[in-house]
Batch of 2 targets.
Target 1
Amino acid sequence: MILISDSAQSELSSRAQVVLAVPRGRNDRFALHGVTVFCLEMLLLGLAAGDSEKALAALADLERLRQVLRSGRKIMSADSEDE
């Protein structure tokens, strides 16, 4: 498990295999999450680079689902389309 936290010494850190200490930006009223989102995107890109065919297939599935949601059609799995 990978823990992404602004506190490397949190209670959860002992359960994680990897702890990424990512500081959150501070505003006067709320915490900003830009650095956290950037870190997540970098992890996802690294995983996608490891198996690009699977990543591209997942992106195609995601785009198909977005189109279905926009159109209001019933969502069908890729397996049922071949039948």
Target 2
Amino acid sequence: MIFKKHHDKTEVTTAKLAVLLIPVMMLSAGVTSLMAAKSYEIIRLTNARGKVIEEEK
């Protein structure tokens, strides 16, 4: 086959895999931090609403 030599040279080592996964890890970390920030915001708003309800009583 024409492409056989090209495919024979392709091997995935641990180092290559680590380098290839950097963008995936960065995306994952970004999404995780956004989720944490949103959770923090929701908790703050819930606490603020709870204080207002308690003060009204």
